[in-house]
Amino acid sequence: MTNTTTADATRATVQEFLSLRLAGDTEGLTALFADDVDWLLAENPAAPWIRPRSTAAECAAQSVELAEYTVAEDARASVSTFLVDGTEAVLMGHLSGTVRATGKSFAGPFALRLTVEGGRITRHHLYENSLSIAEACAP
Fold it and tell me: How far apart are CA 25 and CA 3, in angstroms?
């Protein structure tokens, strides 16, 4: 497979990932994540949906858990940059939301690095404004 073809396949998988996340399709996400995922999201004890994960089901469940703890109507995410190089993809943008228990909002930039191998996501590294999220979770 040429690098262009690999990049096209990576882009298609990431677009599918975004569509499934938006639709809240946990079953589809579980199938899209590899059996073992290199998951990185800085632990945030104040935010119960932010924790270590490694299996496809755990990774897919993150979106369900996020929805349980935040106000869906206030959730926003915009992607300003979508870079693909072979099996690697990087999305950058801005996200915001409101924590259900406190009514407090959080916001900030994010960067998401995904690796796609064999049509499945093997790496999910999310970098976000964890301080803003922790402050929104505090009573």
Answer: 30
Cα separation of 27 and 32, whole Å? Answer: 9
Is this model's pTM higher than 0.90 or not? yes
- The answer to whether 11 and 42 have CB atoms below 8 angstroms apart is no
* DSSP-derived secondary structure letter, 133: H
Tens-place pLDDT, residues 7-42: 999 999 999 999 999 998 999 999 999 999 999 998
Q: Which of helix, strand or coil describes residue 108?
A: strand
Burial 34-59 (b: 16+ CB within 10 A, else e): beebebebeebebbebbeebeebebb
